[in-house]
Every structure is written in C-alpha cells, then in structure tokens.
Write a structure and sequence with these properties.
10 helices, alpha+beta, about 400 residues, 5-stranded antiparallel sheet
Length: about 400
C-alpha cells in the first residue's frame, strides 16, 4: 500500500456557530490518495497556528533565512474580533493559500503536519443536537465562483430534507448507509447523481435515486429539456441495461438534452435518445482526469427503476418524460433548425427589378362573372336580386 497523502483541498464555505459562544468555522472537502472524500471543519485561529508551525518546520522555505527563498504562501494573522464580513472575505485568501500549499514540493505538501491537520476528528462528526437553542447557519460558496468575494456567498441556507425510500448499503468509506424511512439533510447535490448528506450521527455520499422530497414527489429542481443539446464526450463505455437507455463506447461525441438530478441524463446520438450515466460524460475540451477519479471512487449511481422494495410516502410517482416524447421533440427541433439554416432560393436580376426588391404580394384572383355569382349565391340573395329588377 502506498503512502498516505492529500490530492486536493476544496473550501466549501463556512458555518456560523453559537455554542459555546458565537464563532466561525470553515468547511473543507479533503480528497485523499485512496479517492476517499472527507468533510472537516477548522477555525481560522487554528489554521493560522498550523501555518506558524509549518514555517518553523521549514525555515528556509518560509524565508526566515533568506526572504528570496520563500515559497510558503503568506497568511494574515487573526483579528481581535472576527465578524461575519471578515469570515466571508477570508474565504478567497484560504482558497489561494491551500491551493498554493498543495502545489509545493512533496516534502511540504505531504508532510505529516499537513496530513494530521486535515485528518477527521471526533468534532467533525459531531452534528448539532435538537436541544440547542440556535443551530449553526451554513454559508456555501458557489461552485462556479472564481473570485470568492462577499457577494459570492449564498447563505445562510436551510438544508433540504429528504427521505430514504429503500435500504442502501454503502460500498466505500465515503458513502453513507441508509435504512428505509431515514431522514437526511442534503448538503450538496452533485451532477453525478451522488448527493452529500448528513444525519444527526453521520455524513456521506448517497445516490439521489434512493431519496424523495418530504413535501412532493416531483423534483422541481430538474431543469427543462434543452433540445439544442450540449456537446459531451464519453469517458467510459456503457452497455444499456434497460430499453430506455443507450449504449455508447468510450470517446463518442453526443448531445446532452436533459440533465436530471439523479445522475442519469438523456443524451442524443443522431436520432437516437436514451438515458446514460452522467459520470461517464465529460464536456468537450475539458480534462477528464478528475471525472475518471470519481468513477473509480463511487461509480455510476443506481437508477430508481432498479431499486427493489422501494416504499414511497407519496401516492403518485414523479413525472418523467418517455423516450418516445424525447425523440419526437428532438426530431421536431432538429427539423426546424435545418429549415431555418436552409438558404432561400436566389431570384434572378430580372425578377428583382420587376418587384423592386420589395416583398412579393399575394396574387389577386380574377373577378367571377355575373352568371357565376348568381349560380353560387344563396336563395335569399337571388330573391333580393329578382325583386330589385
């Protein structure tokens, strides 16, 4: 077995806690060499203490002997009073700090001091109890945010509550087992169909297909189909297990026309549509290394239709479009797009001169004869005409 090290450290956001007194802790998603993912909570004072000890361990790299040799990033000292605005503005600093730290030579980025600091502690697994007067407020940083400023913060947020429709047995340390009827809070909804959830005693990744909202069976957050499609490339082959799925080989280019939250997207290859696991897809032109690691870590989540002994509290199931509907709408969209892209026939110079370049007017039919009018008019009209004569 190889040495233990950290692959990546991602800042998820921070929590405002009120026990034993008001303070702030930052949430980090730590990805280890065995592809496991752990969420840990660290306060800024202890992060700064870690930073000072790291400088003492590597005085040359810290610039204590010669400032020109410094490679360990700077980190500002804590303030006497840390309010919410300070906690928010500090997120960009922490993201840059740990990003720079992980890019340093192995003797620093994989040193025991760093590994011990991010190991899961008992406090990381301890969740708020029901008897607390005020529960923590969670603030998350959007995934697509490049500059972590005060305006990037989404919180405070109320985590959505879902219910397990069947027993789920975990297959890795990063997953969380569920029993039918368990109620969980969803911290993160990944496009892969794996959701990071927590209960009062545990945390971990759970397939979205095993969960249902408490208030309604319909998943209102599912986006509308996009029949124009987004180009993706398959990074792993998949053989269809059901009639509404599609088989694809690695390296094929397809269009994604509907991104569903359970991780099974509707894709289009030519005029064929079907479900395909989103974990096996990567946007065209992007690096597939991170997606490949997720596949090794968790694999594609199961589909709702494959779950046995599922027990829902709702009388009606979630609404889903059939593949026939997807195909019809997709063919209709493609035909309309081809018609719009088809060039109009060019008219000759003589035709353009006759019309003066104006829009052609509809042809006026010739006036019918009097006999034809009398033949086709109603009996009432005929009587009126006869009396007039």
């Amino acid at each position: 077995m190889g040495d233990t090290f950290i692959r990546h450290i991602a800042l998820l956001g921070f929590e405002k806690r009120f026990v034993p007194s008001q303070h702030y802790v930052y949430m980090f998603l730590v990805k280890w060499q065995d592809l496991s993912e752990k969420v840990v909570y660290r306060g800024f004072p202890e992060i700064y203490e870690f930073h000072k000890q790291l400088k003492e361990m590597f005085p040359i790299e810290a610039g204590d002997i010669n400032a020109e040799n410094r490679i360990i990033p700077h980190l500002p000292a804590p303030r006497w009073f840390d309010g919410q605005r300070v906690a928010e503005s500090r997120q960009g600093t922490l993201t840059e700090y740990f990003g720079a730290l992980m890019s340093l030579p192995v003797k620093i980025s994989r040193c025991p001091h760093l590994l011990d600091f991010f190991k899961v502690r008992p406090d990381d697994l301890k969740l708020p109890t029901d008897n607390q007067v005020k529960k923590p407020e969670t603030y998350l940083v959007p995934k697509d945010s490049k500059n972590n400023s005060v305006t990037d913060i989404t919180g405070p947020i109320i985590l959505q509550t879902y219910r397990a429709i069947a027993d789920f047995e975990k297959s890795s340390g990063s997953q969380m087992a569920l029993a039918t009827g368990d109620v969980v809070d969803v911290v993160e909804k990944s496009e892969s169909g794996w959701w990071f959830c927590q209960t009062k005693t545990k945390r971990g990744w759970v397939p979205a297909s095993y969960l249902e909202p408490l208030d309604s069976p319909d998943e209102a957050e599912d986006p509308e189909p996009n029949y124009e499609g987004e180009p993706y490339v398959t990074i792993k082959a998949y053989t269809a297990q059901m009639e509404d799925e599609v088989s694809l080989q690695e390296g094929e280019t397809i269009d994604v026309i509907h991104k569903l939250l359970d991780g099974w997207w509707v894709v289009r290859k030519g005029d064929i549509t079907g479900y395909f696991p989103s974990m096996y897809l990567q946007k065209s032109g992007q690096d597939a290394a991170q997606a490949q690691r997720q596949i090794k870590s968790r694999g594609a989540p199961p589909r709702r239709s494959s779950i046995r002994n599922a027990h829902s509290i709702h009388q009606r199931s979630r609404k889903r479009l059939s593949q026939d509907t997807y195909r019809r709408n997709s063919v209709r969209f493609l035909q309309q797009r081809r018609r719009q892209a088809r060039p109009e026939p060019q008219r000759s110079a003589k035709q353009q001169a006759q019309t003066g370049g104006a829009k052609p007017q509809p042809a006026v039919p010739p006036r019918p004869s009097a006999d034809l009018i009398l033949h086709r008019c109603s009996e009432s009209t005929k009587r009126k005409l006869a009396s007039a004569v």
